[in-house]
Amino acid sequence: MTEIIDGNAVAQSIRDDLVASIDRLVDAGQRPSLATVLMSEDPASETYVSMKQDDCEEVGIEAIDIDIDPDADAAELYDTIEDLNADEDVNGILVQMPVPDHVEDRSVLRAIDPMKDVDGFHPENVGRLVAGDARYKPCTPHGIQKLIESAGVNTEGKDAVVVGRSDIVGKPMANLLIQKAPGGNATTTVCHSRTENLAERTRNADILVAAAGVPEMIDGEMIQEGATVIDVGINRVDADTEKGYELVGDVEYESAKEVAGAITPVPGGVGPMTRAMLLYNTVKATGLQHDIDVDLP
Ligand code: NAD
């Protein structure tokens, strides 16, 4: 029987545990707070930000909502980040990507105080992750580690294949999988748009993480019998639905689930975990900034 890994349930259990840590921080006089900065009118970005704010409020994290006109000067964004860096009542800062073309995204990531960088994208935090001394693990790959663990799958000594090499998913995922640490110790291959014989490589995977952003590109024939399959993709494809589209992953779910030992659905797999791990990092940040010990799930 293939195990369907329930991301909603795992995320809920993480949120429940975080509530206890948040209570402890509040008792110590430090309610965690997360500032989200949106410089975009893209409906998807607006939705992501409002979901993150709702998530915060649900667990007792203060959500600070900052909107910047997408036509504004880049300086306005940098000034905002500087103010948030200096504000002791702000524990986490998240600038929703993408920013407009006239703003250089790498400079934005570098402008955020690394102690408040709850996305884990500042070069200092990336470096720490690579060096095996992570402060804030990026939310999506960290959530995937938790999902793999929840399925009772030990990564140690396994062949892991990550399809995708982006800075937010593929690269940090591979870095976590190779670390000499729980959830790591896997022999890890990273595939990308220039990889030859992709199917040959994915068929070798005991653990397959698909993060290419190509709808249903991995089918059952590309998967090893019994493999753990994590589908990161969220792709809109035209469909005869009320909205005119549906969401599909990078994995062709129906054929993959016949072969996989465990698999995440889309939606309801990785997505909820990404959101839960942002709360995790915000709680962790608050503890670190105020030197308060907090238990983390
Ligand atoms: P990206 O476009 O930045 O990177 C995609 C990567 O896939 C690239 O490195 C590219 O080399 C590789 N790739 C593209 N086509 C390929 C192919 N045919 N064969 C092999 N490799 C190929 O995307 P991203 O930001 O890493 O996101 C990937 C997917 O995951 C998207 O669908 C995105 O919406 C989704 N996503 C989901 C979550 C979540 O929480 N569930 C979070 C982040 C991203």
TrEMBL record:
Stored InterPro entries: Aminoacid_DH-like_N_sf, NAD(P)-bd_dom_sf, THF_DH/CycHdrlase, THF_DH/CycHdrlase_cat_dom, THF_DH/CycHdrlase_NAD-bd_dom
GO MF terms held by the record: methenyltetrahydrofolate cyclohydrolase activity; methylenetetrahydrofolate dehydrogenase (NADP+) activity
Residues reported in the UniProt entry to bind NADP(+): G164, R165, S166, I234
Key words, A-Z: Amino-acid biosynthesis, Histidine biosynthesis, Hydrolase, Methionine biosynthesis, Multifunctional enzyme, NADP, One-carbon metabolism, Oxidoreductase, Purine biosynthesis
Catalytic activity: (6R)-5,10-methylene-5,6,7,8-tetrahydrofolate + NADP(+) = (6R)-5,10-methenyltetrahydrofolate + NADPH; (6R)-5,10-methenyltetrahydrofolate + H2O = (6R)-10-formyltetrahydrofolate + H(+)
Example GO BP: tetrahydrofolate interconversion
EC number annotated for this UniProt entry: 1.5.1.5, 3.5.4.9
Domain Tetrahydrofolate dehydrogenase/cyclohydrolase NAD(P)-binding stretches: 138-286
Domain Tetrahydrofolate dehydrogenase/cyclohydrolase catalytic: 5-119
GO cellular component terms listed in the entry, alphabetical order: cytosol
Pathway annotation from the record: One-carbon metabolism; tetrahydrofolate interconversion
Subunit and partners: Homodimer.
Name of the protein this chain belongs to: Bifunctional protein FolD
Origin species: Haloarcula japonica (strain ATCC 49778 / DSM 6131 / JCM 7785 / NBRC 101032 / NCIMB 13157 / TR-1)
